[in-house]
Amino acid sequence: MSLNIKFGVSTWLWTSPFSTDTISLFGKIRQMGFECVEIPVEDPDLINLDIVKEALTEFDLRPVICGAFGPTRDLTHDDPAFHQVSFDYINRCLDICSALGAGFLAGPMYSAVGKARLVSPELKKTEWDRAVHNLRKVCHSAQERGLQIALEPLNRFESDLVNTAADALKLVADIGHPAAKVMLDGFHMNIEEPDIERAITSCGDQLLHVQVSENYRGTPGTGQTRWEAFYRGLSAIGYQGVVSIESFTPEVKELAGAVCIWKPLAESQDRFAGDGLTFLRRWAEGI
């Protein structure tokens, strides 16, 4: 039995930050055979929504909008000013979702990426409670626009708050709002999850989006990922969303430094995307 899914790719595979000019990739992405494009929003001011929407229509691509949460976008910070910066940014991202026809905003929006420390149980509870309180506000904002949010667990080297599917599900339960859902990223799962299949099935209908690459963030199908476990998990829950390739180019030094990619992971970024899609199509057929 084949998976009833769509395939996407993040523009981060080629460039950063996403801007209106990044639509120059859309034709190539569609020609390769992708049905969806992940748009990572680092700076909303760089994006002309009318032009991007027209390009999405021209190339028949469905958008997935992902947030980028650097040090100033931290809903768990001691200083409430950081919370407001986060709210302002997230609301702009939600407006982008609405304008481009995306049903949810995805990402690790509970805290700043790279905030990974050994903290006391008391401090962790304080920051967890801040995340719950502030994300409940985000959910209200999303619901007002008819949208949802998809919360992404990160590996322990990038976050000390939400590392596994179980953590994300606990966060969703504590938020207690119907707009709060989960996304999973295979790269992080390869580090944190003892059982990928069980992690996926535990999410059930809470799972809105899936990102994949290899255990070393390379081309799908070239590493040590247990793809059969991914297949069984997604099949068991009847997942019908997008499976999207997310990795990064070493050519954009700031981005490469942030994600610790010090060398090319494929012969070319086009080859990364094309070979990855070829593998994923075979995988989705159960081969």
Tell me what you see in this structure.
By secondary structure, the protein is of the alpha/beta class. It has a single domain, classed as Divalent-metal-dependent TIM barrel enzymes (TIM Barrel, Alpha-Beta Barrel). It is 42% helix and 14% strand. Strand 4, helix 4 and strand 5 form a beta-alpha-beta unit. The mean pLDDT is 97.
Summarize the helices and strands and which ones pair or pack.
Blueprint: E1 6-10, H1 26-32, E2 36-41, H2 49-58, E3 62-67, H3 80-100, E4 104-107, H4 121-144, E5 148-151, H5 165-175, E6 180-185, H6 186-192, H7 196-203, E7 207-212, H8 227-236, E8 242-245, H9 253-259, H10 269-284
Parallel strand pairs: 1-2, 1-8, 2-3, 3-4, 4-5, 5-6, 6-7, 7-8
The low-pLDDT segments are: none
Determine the fraction of residues in helical runs and give it as a percent range.
40-55%
Largest sheet entry: 8 strands, parallel, barrel
Gross morphology is: globular
CATH architecture: Alpha-Beta Barrel
Strand order of the largest sheet: 1-2-3-4-5-6-7-8
Mean pLDDT: 97
Question: Which quaternary structure do these chains form?
Answer: single chain
Number of strands: 8
Number of helices: 10
Work out the radius of gyration: 18 Å
Helix- and strand-based class?
alpha/beta
Q: Tell me the CATH topology.
A: TIM Barrel
Please trace the helix and strand order, writing H or E for each element: EHEHEHEHEHEHHEHEHH
Name of the CATH superfamily: Divalent-metal-dependent TIM barrel enzymes
Protein name: TIM barrel protein
InterPro entries: IolE/XylAMocC-like, Xyl_isomerase-like_sf, Xyl_isomerase-like_TIM-brl
Pfam family, one: AP_endonuc_2
Domain Xylose isomerase-like TIM barrel: 28-251
